[in-house]
Amino acid sequence: MLCNMTEICKPTLTHHFAIPAFNTGTSMVLRACIEAAEEANAPVIVEIHPDELRFARKSFAKMVIEEAHNTKVPVCLHLDHGANLEDVMTAIACGFTSVMIDGSALPFEENIAQTKKVVEIAHAVGVSVEAELGTIGTMEGNQITYTRPEEAKEFVERTGVDTLAIAIGTRHGLYPKGLTPHLELELLKQIREAVSIPLVLHGGSDNPDDEIEQACLTGISKLNISSDIKKAFYVKARQVLKDESLREPGDIYPPCIDEMKKVMRQKMDLFHTTGTAVLY
Ligand SMILES: [Zn+2]
Question: Structure pTM?
């Protein structure tokens, strides 16, 4: 079942769970997403970054849409970190049901203006929009600028955006040893009270499980996962490829996909997503 982001996130607001958004840059990841969601009877967000779309080619979106139509579980096809109107319009033309416009590095007023423009265009064709307020840390040492509740409220009111990515203490990527990430759950509660739309967390690959679970129960509706699933896939791939006689994709990839699916299922359990397809 193909859904936009508003449709897929709606039950999360009353049933307190979050839906994983898995970065999907190849058909192997897509296969893992669909199979994991079917086995868990859970909704799933297939998320493609502009770089991943350039690699997989635009026709890959058609494959995701076909898979979504052919499964009973809800599937949303979302553009991750659209940088500009070109990224967003390319995704809409490819059939994405949701797009992110990331103006988080812009001054507040410019972020509002850019997001508002994208919302007007996307809503005209039933596509949902995610924006970001505050900045998520990176492994290159960027500091986190925490989202302020009163700014979140004003941002949502003035843009009409459907979902909002907030900064409460996560970083993109896997964390170096010695760095202990910490989520500001009290801040999350304040933002949750200030706005009514679904909230999104990026960069949650390495935060402690109990904090992530609390975030899902406290008002996060969508949680982006990229590094964790790729790591599981490629650790297995390196092992499998030690057998130099292997050359058939059908021999090499299935065990790697299975390892990736295990991580996906763990995330679905942790986010309380497992079994929630019955709510749609
Ligand atoms: Zn992100």
Answer: 0.95
Pick the catalytic residue from 51, 80, 243, 251.
80
Query: Taking the C-alpha atoms of 227, 96, 37 and 239 in order, what is their torsion angle to the nearest 10 degrees?
Result: -40
Side-chain half-sphere of 160: how many Cα atoms within 13 Å? Answer: 13
d(CA 155, CA 82): 18
- Tell me: the pLDDT tens digits for 189-219? 999 999 999 999 997 777 889 999 999 999 9
Q: Which CATH architecture has domain 2-231+263-279?
A: Alpha-Beta Barrel (3.20)
The rounded Å distance from CA 249 to ligand 1 centre is 30
Decide if 80 is catalytic: yes
- As a whole number of angstroms, the distance between CA 226 and CA 228 comes to 6
Q: How far is the CA of 73 from the centre of ligand 1 (A)?
A: 24
Pairing relationship of beta strands 19-23 and 98-101 according to DSSP bridges = unpaired
